[in-house]
Design brief:
Layout: E1 9-13, H1 20-31, E2 53-56, E3 68-78, H2 81-91, E4 98-104, H3 114-121, E5 135-141, E6 146-154, H4 175-185, E7 191-194, H5 201-208, E8 212-217, H6 220-232, E9 238-241, E10 251-257, H7 269-281, E11 282-289, H8 294-299, E12 303-312, E13 315-323, H9 325-331
Parallel strand pairs: 4-5, 7-8, 7-10, 8-9, 10-11
Antiparallel strand pairs: 1-2, 1-3, 3-6, 5-6, 11-13, 12-13
Bound molecules: S-adenosylmethionine.
Amino acid sequence: MSEHMGLPYCYRLSPPIGQYALAALEFRALTGANGPRVPTPNPRGERDDLPRLVRARIGVDVGRSSYVAECLRVLAEEPTLEELLTSAGKLSLKRERFRIKLRESGEVKSPLSQEIERAFADTIVGSPDLSNPATLLVVIAQPDRWLLAEQVSSTARGWRGHEQRPFQYSSALPPRIARAMVNLVAAPGDRIIDPCCGVGTVLVEASSMGIEPYGWEINPKLAEHATANLCHHQQGAWIVVGDGRNARGRWGGAVLDLPYGQQCERVDSVCAGLVKRATEVADLIAVVSLQDLGELLASLDCRLLGVAELVKGHLRRRVHWASTPSGSQALSGG
Ligand SMILES: C[S@@+](CC[C@H](N)C(=O)[O-])C[C@H]1O[C@@H](n2cnc3c(N)ncnc32)[C@H](O)[C@@H]1O
């Protein structure tokens, strides 16, 4: 954190255990800024001491994010609480219906105290509103800094409730992970494909963010279930019953949750074919697999943008984020 001190915006990440690395990739995709460093390999996948606050030059709307809880504009930062209070007083902030909240940084257990919140509230000109504030001001304790910041945007936690659906199955992605993967490759207004869409988790997340999803599914029953799940959540998608290796057209992004077969160690020809076709029809891809796809992606002339390990119990999977040859060309203006 200290290396980025002075940058005007501060983001707070809130991934559950085992999803920190994907949160770091999502942060990069949403903000264009460098994410926090993730220790590799993440030894147990359950560390709780990774930085939750990341500074950046620009502020963006994180409303659709899975893991970026909020974007804050830093108003003051000082080495001690007393100095921060003095700086807050000098700012003479005028805010109507404000609320002050003390946040823990994840690195330091701040003394959660209403007194601190009250002391900062006393520096603000205007009336507080604790139940429905128009402005949220946040005080954060860092190991060596105290920050006063104003919330610019926060996640709408749009994946919530999507777990409840008429059709579940054991291979389905958790909606929160699916949403982050969509955010790696697309923004509202884009079109994406999911060439092996299962019961439609990715399609629901994409559609609910204003991204137009196209799904392929080889199993007709699962394609029906995907349609039912989309209807249940009042979302829409185009679904083709068929082999995703035959996908045609052009998409901004592709999200693939590869079928896992018996042979966990190697990428079988179906998976390799699905990835290959996705790289031919989309500019950016996010692929989750049990296997390391580094070699395959390199052989397809993709540029690896990041890899995130997802850990759940003994299950370790990797999300590969890459730009395809067409995507790299578009990025370089070619
Ligand atoms: C890991 S599951 C995807 C789960 C999905 N992300 C979800 O949350 O429901 C992989 C899916 O790929 C489908 N599949 C396997 N081979 C396929 C192919 N060649 N084309 C399209 N779908 C395929 C399987 O039927 C399975 O539903």
